[in-house]
Amino acid sequence: MQTYKKKRVSIRSIIKYLTVIILVAILLFPIYWMVVSSVTPSNFLMSLPPHLLPIKTTLINYSKIFARPQYVRFFINSFVVSGGTVLLVLVISIPASYSFSRFNFAFKNAIMTSIMSVQMFPIVVILISLYTFYLQWGLINTYRGLILADAVFALPLAIMLMKSFFDTLPKSLDESARIDGAGRFQTLFRVLLPLTLPGIIAVGIYTFLSSWDDFLMALTIMTTDTMKTLPVGLAQSFMGEYAHDYGGLMAFSVAGSLPIVLMFIFFQRYMIEGLTAGAVKG
């Protein structure tokens, strides 16, 4: 009887692990194919049947990154816009989320609902009126214009995430700091912010990722080649009307994914702490 139960458990375990392996393989296959395509000559990419293993590798697709100065400029523009967006979102979301967490004031819930409702509107609808305002304000084809637009769409979730982190901190910390003579800003920056570091990093990574991947707003606001960000530059440089350079596109996609991968590798500890902060500090 025990032998039979052990066999049933072992069969279930095998099925479970096989299912996990198959699901992981399905999820990782697009990444694998992107890497393989980036080192495969373009004339082999469209061959039938497709070759799952690279039969002839080359680095010529990666050399295209430095072939033209504007290609490097795409990366620089993306870093400037994403970094500026993260800075602006943190500067606004930290005091805003602290206020929502610690103070009770009139129409508090209505204001929070209004902030979250921004994400309900399609970007395409907002871009029509946004473009008109940007023309009048001289923000078309500028870093500050795209940073401001990306920050507006990233702020609602950033404020709600930071508020949840401040909610996990007991108000006795504020009272103790007040007894020691600290003001509101001193309490926020010297006492509470160090404890919410995982949340700040999580919000920063989310904001950087959303700005780095933005396409529609960058396509609308940035009108010259020297100001285009990486997603727009890739689409317009390697996706032609009659032919597509898939090898170059995949090489740029791999290079464009590296900053995000490295960010998750170096800050994964803080992100895990951020995800479990409520359970630990509640």
How would you summarize what this structure contains?
With 282 residues, this protein is mainly α. It is built from 14 helices and no strands. The protein has two domains: 37 residues; 217 residues, MetI-like fold (Orthogonal Bundle), CATH 1.10.3720.
Explain what this protein looks like in three dimensions.
This protein has helices at residues 2-38, 42-45, 60-63, 69-102, 108-116, 123-137, 143-168, 172-179, 184-195, 197-212, 216-221, 230-238, 246-275, 277-281. The protein is an all-alpha fold and 282 residues long. The protein has two domains: 2-38; 65-281, MetI-like fold, CATH 1.10.3720. Helix 4 runs parallel beside helix 7. It is globular and about 70 Å long.
CATH topology of the largest domain: MetI-like fold
Q: Give the count of helical stretches.
A: 14
CATH class of the largest domain: Mainly Alpha
The CATH superfamily label of the largest domain reads: MetI-like
Radius of gyration: 24 Å
CATH architecture of the largest domain: Orthogonal Bundle
Please give the largest β-sheet: none
Q: What class, by secondary structure content?
A: mainly alpha
Gap between N and C termini: 46 Å
Poorly predicted parts: 278-282
How much is the average pLDDT? Answer: 82
Number of domains: 2
Strand content: under 5%
- Percentage of helical residues? over 70%
Count of strand segments: 0
Strand and helix order: HHHHHHHHHHHHHH
Principal-axes geometry comes out as globular
